[in-house]
Specification:
The chain is an alpha+beta fold. The chain is globular, with a radius of gyration of 18 Å. The model has no long low-confidence stretch (mean pLDDT 95). It comes from Nocardioides euryhalodurans. InterPro entries: Cupin_2, QDO-like, RmlC-like_jellyroll, RmlC_Cupin_sf. It holds the Pfam family Cupin_2.
Length: 168
C-alpha cells in the first residue's frame, strides 16, 4: 500500500503546536446533577458546551420525561445536529417520515436538513451540534417557558431566528 491514499481527505492543519502535549483533559462525572429539569420531568445535561470545546461542538445528554415531548420538524442554517439514542425509543423525523429509533441508533442532520424528535418513558439520547453554537440559552429559555415565563409571538419568532431554528 502506498501512502497517502488519494481517496482520503488529509488531516486538518495542526492546532496544538507545543512539543510534549499538555494535561488539559476534563471530565464530567455521570453523577453530576443535570443543568436543566423540564416541567415534564425531562432533563438536559451539558456534557460539553461550545464554550468548553472552543466552538468545535456541543454535546448534551437528553432524558425524556414520562409523557411525550420534543420539537416539531424544523431546520438550522448554520449548525448540524446529530442524535444517538442511548436507551428506550425515540421518534426521529428524518425529513421524510417519523422513524422509531432505539438504543444504538444514530441520525445525522446536515445544515438545512429538516428534522424533529419525540420521546417519552425516560428514553435517553445524546444531541451533538457542530459547530458548538450556544444552545444552552435556547434550552434554558424554553425550560423557563415551562415554568411560568412568557413570550409574545413576536418575541418567540425573534428568539427562534436568534437560535438558528426555522419551523416547517
Amino acid at each position: 500500500m502506498s501512502l497517502p491514499n488519494p481517496l482520503h481527505r488529509p488531516y486538518p492543519d495542526d492546532v496544538y503546536t507545543g512539543e510534549g502535549g499538555e494535561a488539559t483533559a476534563w471530565i464530567r462525572r455521570d453523577e453530576t446533577d443535570p443543568e436543566l429539569t423540564y416541567r415534564n420531568g425531562g432533563t438536559c445535561e451539558y456534557l460539553a458546551t461550545g464554550d468548553q470545546t472552543g466552538g468545535l461542538y456541543g454535546l448534551y445528554r437528553w432524558s425524556f420525561g414520562e409523557t411525550e415531548s420534543g420539537p416539531d420538524p424544523h431546520f438550522h442554517r448554520a449548525i448540524t445536529e446529530s442524535f444517538y439514542v442511548l436507551e428506550g425509543t425515540v421518534r426521529l423525523y428524518d425529513g421524510h417520515d417519523w422513524i422509531t429509533a432505539k438504543g444504538g441508533d444514530f441520525l445525522h442532520v446536515p445544515e438545512g436538513g429538516i428534522h424533529g424528535f419525540r420521546g417519552s418513558d425516560h428514553a435517553r439520547m445524546l444531541l451533538m451540534f457542530t459547530p458548538g453554537a450556544p444552545r444552552e440559552d435556547y434550552f434554558e429559555t424554553l425550560g423557563s417557558l415551562g415554568h411560568g415565563a412568557t413570550m409574545t409571538d413576536d418575541e418567540r419568532a425573534a428568539f427562534m431566528l436568534q437560535h438558528d431554528t426555522y419551523w416547517v
